[in-house]
């Protein structure tokens, strides 16, 4: 039983055409489906129906985020555990959402709507399953990341929110930032052994989305992504640089409606017996941006 991976992020945009143009032409995602008010997008190496849903709405923001669970029966088990913790859950039945079957939804302690699903429509990646090419077509536009990697949400009470993800959802803490009184300012949580985080929680307003991140294979791809962003006039928030926390290489930037995106590579393997890494607040600058050693107020205070 467990959390397998981040499946999709569902956000609102007041300009569906502009957002779709940016995510296809600059980010380089594949548009897989378009309905009256929604665009569904995915990366070239993703097997699931989509990893991003953009829905027309006058107010930019996050509708929900969805994690896939390991086993079919996990949905029912998590439903019981989340209810027992005191968060009411609801079921979205098959047919209620594009690209997936039954799911459960609930509000996490920091106010975001989270969804768990097992039954996801597998539409396959761009490479196919028979004699696949190891690389996608060379003419993909934009940054063209192979997959979505992680996300970060804000919480007024980081420790309370982290406890929910650890005790109820069974995720493992890999790193934390503590203030002078030993209170958690940020936590990095993994549901698997592939990487130091599938989700992170950092102090900030309840309900807010800080960013989601796309995986790139190496530092050279990060460099090329910076060129693509600068060429297209995209506002870069931070980077290219390195995180102290997670050790990842990174760039943060804003989509046309002000939602923060990240491209990320590096990190490390997390085995079940890996010990938690702790950062103290006086080293938070290096934890965030190892070379610059700055606690950027724009970075910490701007959210969706
Ligand atoms: C990351 C990451 C904040 C830290 C962000 C870190 C918002 O995005 O991928 O490790 O304080
Ligand atoms: Fe990140």
UniProtKB/TrEMBL annotation:
Pfam families xref list: Diox-like_N (PF22247), Glyoxalase (PF00903)
Q: Which UniProt keywords apply?
A: Aromatic hydrocarbons catabolism, Dioxygenase, Iron, Metal-binding, Oxidoreductase, Repeat
- Quickly give the catalysed reaction: catechol + O2 = (2Z,4E)-2-hydroxy-6-oxohexa-2,4-dienoate + H(+)
Q: Which domain of life is it from?
A: Bacteria
Domain VOC positions: 5-119, 147-266
PROSITE patterns registered for this protein in UniProt: EXTRADIOL_DIOXYGENAS, VOC
Family stated for the protein in its record: Belongs to the extradiol ring-cleavage dioxygenase family.
Describe its assembly.
Homotetramer.
Protein name per UniProt: Metapyrocatechase
**Organism (species):** Actinomycetospora chlora
Tell me the organism's taxonomic lineage.
Bacteria, Bacillati, Actinomycetota, Actinomycetes, Pseudonocardiales
